[in-house]
Amino acid sequence: MNSELFVTDCGVITPLGRGKQAVAQGLFAGSQRGIVARADFLPARTVEVGAIQESLAPLPSALAPYDSRNNRLMQAALAEIAVAVEDATSRYGRDRIAVILGTSTSGIADGEEALMHYRREGRWPEHFDYRMQETGSLAEFAARSLGLTGPAYTIATACSSSAKVFASARRLIRAGLADAAVVGGADTLCRMTLNGFASLEALSKGRCNPFSANRDGITIGEGAAAFLLDREPGPVRLLGVGETSDAHHATAPDPAGRGAAQAMRDALADAELAPETIAYINLHGTATPLNDAMEAKAIADLFGSRVPCSSTKALTGHMLGAAGGCEAAFLWLTLNPRTNPERLLPPHLWDGVPDAALPVLDLVGGGTTFPLSPQTAMLSNSFGFGGSNMALILGSGR
């Protein structure tokens, strides 16, 4: 049996736009169209966030108990891969396709609105159902939406959630519990998240400025991505995964970057690749002082200063539980000649002021290209609260 797994299709919606082509166009142009000022999240404070501007249709009536903004984002991503999923069901059956998705806050924004309604009116909104905000319902909703009856569950490991789904899905397929899998994730802007990061004094006063000497915190965003993981050949391959949990601190990263570096080493070993074969790294790059310092050290120790890198969070904000999946989508769009015929790398947007305390990284500017070959491999990092680290390597397909 073929042990190779391909990421045969991708659906994505982020502050850069809706759909593969729109997101690719914004990504390679370094667009910040979705970074906007909002005054409705924090008391007496306006904050920049990465917000999706496109309207989102309500879910079908049969899925009304799940009709949150978070699930509407997920539905938009799933719609792009629906044909590929149907093709897979004809090969394997609906009970042989798993659904594994990641999220962090899920539909809590809808719960916040419902609670405010309750406080005003003394009753819950008629349309409100707990499943709109329940963390584990994301995969249940997606499986019902796609008509799939295989294993379905949600991963919630903070900012690594929708990256870890690739590793989980591969384990299911290799164990013979599924033949293919729908993976990805979604997360949505909400008051709880913004106020939580504000209480940690981790929000940027403006837009995030990754790896700059002037960085002062993160910009929060929202998004969703969906993929079909299959043995059938496709434009992108899943080459390697590396998962570690260093449990250094509830919110702060290990300053030495040991868990992050081990995740990258494990991903390289899993892919049977040397560090010098990686053509590009999508950095976790949150623009907090501690996280960027840790990641810069881990990258420099393993790769030196030769590998092109960028953080795309200045384009989208930090999409939290959706970040790993959406940034995997950015690798997919970069590696796929149909969405990136000019072979451009996602640019690193910042003020250009390096931090002398950090190792030098090759932070790519706009218009930077890479040589595409059947051996091209790229890596994406996702590091979550509590030391949940994930490194994912994707490569050219066939």
TrEMBL record:
The keyword Transferase applies. PROSITE patterns: KS3_1 (PS00606), KS3_2 (PS52004). GO terms for cellular component: cytosol. One of its GO terms (molecular function) is 3-oxoacyl-[acyl-carrier-protein] synthase activity. The keyword Electron transport does not apply. Signal peptide: none annotated. Residues 1-396 form the Ketosynthase family 3 (KS3) domain. Belongs to the thiolase-like superfamily. Beta-ketoacyl-ACP synthases family. PANTHER family: BETA-KETOACYL SYNTHASE, POLYKETIDE SYNTHASE-RELATED. NCBIfam families: PRK09185.1. This is Beta-ketoacyl-[acyl-carrier-protein] synthase II.
